[in-house]
Structures are given as structure tokens and as C-alpha cells.
Amino acid sequence: MIIDGKQKKNIDRAVELILSGDVVGFPTETVYGLGADAHNISAVKKIFEIKQRPDWDPLIVHVAGREQLETVVEELPPIAVKLIEKFWPGPLTIVLKKKTSLPSEVTSGLEAVAVRMPRHLIALALIKNSNKAIAAPSANQFQGLSPTTARAVEKSLGKKVSVILDGGPCLVGVESTVISLLDEPIILRPGGISLEDLEIVLGHKIKINVKSSIVRPVSPGMLDFHYAPQKPLRYFDAKGLTEFVKKRGIKKNLSTAALVCFSNKEVKKFENAGFKNIFPLSIVGNYDEASRNLFSTLREIDESEFNMIYALAFPEERLGVAINDRLKKAQHEGR
Ligand code: TXA
Ligand code: MG
Fold it and tell me: Is the pTM value of this prediction over 0.85?
């Protein structure tokens, strides 16, 4: 993307806001972020307030390169250097021991910080021109769908954010992969860089622990979903969905339900099962295209007349792993 004169003015305005301790909405290649100066405690607190995010859920710090990375992390193990050289700028977040000078509000009191260098030119311009590391979660209300367009940010948080930079639809569409390098490498969240690609670079298998090390307060019913649309969503594998349709005799209700699936293959099969409104995320079955379309499709369905969303599991490979993670966490019976 080219940053034209008008866009440059918008970025300058956003930089002013960051420098004055305010928050801005901005595009990254994964999803839109809600950013503030990571070293300004009151600015960081505004992020939590605006998103209604609990203070125990730490933020990712965005940097524009290696030099700035060294202002937020205490040490850079060789394995981190290896991953950075291969995947930055891009959708890989690494968790490392934090510098004590980084406010603990950013990391929710943890000794470790999650950090990444985004690939989007507007995100990079915002970080470079302000010369600030930028703490930013996805720019949506806590537990809601992540925004992949400026309009989606506006709808979710528009009244509370004075500037939202528009960088077009996000090219990756799912959030970054979060990998902890504090100990043996472990994936805390599957995302835009696949496990397969990480394993090639590291030369060995990597474990996934999506429960992560973050201790969440127990609050039944409140925190068991995430990335969720307003409409109820149920997630099945193909066999489970076929059985569910048969058993429950829900066929007559399928005209008001939407089905989200991978490709045309599933469309044919589930049309025969009685589904009327099927949304393949990639007709040809391409993972990159499917992840790009995931949140925008869920949002589109959420804003339309359907009263129920069914989601069909993707193959557990490549970006299908991240897509399944988001769909599983989006399940709920109504909110
Ligand atoms: O692609 C992305 O990562 C987007 C864009 C805006 O960069 N950001 C994003 O942020 O998805 P957020 O806040 O929605 O998700 C951050 C994830 C959470 O799962 C959080 O628990 C984890 O990163 N995280 C943040 N800091 C951590 C830390 N110090 N240790 C372990 N996990 C951490
Ligand atoms: Mg988020």
C-alpha cells in the first residue's frame, strides 16, 4: 500500500495523539489494533477502559525493529533472533522477559512481555514517527469479534476513539501467533504464522498450550468465550454436524441459520443436508483466503437476519489451526 499525502496527514495526527497520551485505532496486517504509548501508564489504562478488558489480560507491544525491541525486553536469546530474522515484520508475537522500565500495567503484572513487529506500513509509520513502542490489543470490545476493517473498529469503539487510521482490509485476518520463549518454545495462541512454518525454522516439534500461563480469575460463564459474534454459534466437525441435523430434526429451522465452512466441497455436502445459507471462507479451499475472510464473514452474518450460526471445523493444519481456535472460542448459546 502507498501512503499518500492525505494518509500522511492522518498518521501525523495519530502520532500527535500517541505523544499526548491518547489512544488511536490503526491497521496491522492481522487485525486492527487500539494503540497507545507502551511506556505511558495512563495511556495504557485507557486501552483497558475503552475495551472493557480485565486488567489481568496483558497487551502485545508493537515495535518497528530490533533496536526498539531492546528497549522493552531484558534479553534476546538466540532462538528469538532466529525467529525474528525469519518472520518479522509479520504475524508472530514472541514472549520474552521484560525490561523493568516497561510499566507492569502493559503485562498485567507478568515479568514477561509479548512483542511483535507488524508488517503493515501504516502501523510501522505510526511506531517510527512517534518513536514509541505501542501497546495494542485488537480494537474491539472485550470478547467480541476482532475487526479487520476500519469500519468494524468504528462500529465497535467509534464513539470512544477520536482517530481510526484506515489501511484497508487486513491481509492476514487472524491475530498473530503467540509463542513463549521464556523456556522451551511453546505456542500460547495459534495465529497467522503456522506451526508447520515455525517447526521448519526451529528444526523440531513445538508444543501448543492455548490455556497459557496467564492466571484468569474464575468467573463462571463470563470468560469461556472470546472472538464471539452476538448471535449464538455452534462448532462441529462434519460428522457431528450431520448427526446433529438428523437427530435434532432441526431441518425446518435451517432457512434462518448460517453455516460457515472452508470451501465449495462442504457447500455441496451441506446443501444436501438442508442448509440454505452457506458461507465458504474460500471457494477453492485456500487457507490464507479463508483466514482473511473469517472475521469479516462472521461480522456480516452477525449484522444480517440469521438467528443462528453453525461453524464447521477446518482441517487441523496450516492456518486451519488458528481458524479452529477462533471458532471454538466463539461458541456460545446466546448473549
Ligand atoms: O495480531 C495481533 O496479535 C493483534 C494485532 C493488533 O497486533 N493483537 C492482538 O492482541 O490480538 P490481543 O490483546 O487481542 O491478544 C493478545 C494475546 C492475548 O491472548 C494475551 O493473553 C497474550 O497475547 N499475551 C499478551 N501478553 C502476554 C504475556 N506477557 N505472556 C503471555 N501471553 C501474553
Ligand atoms: Mg483480541
Answer: yes
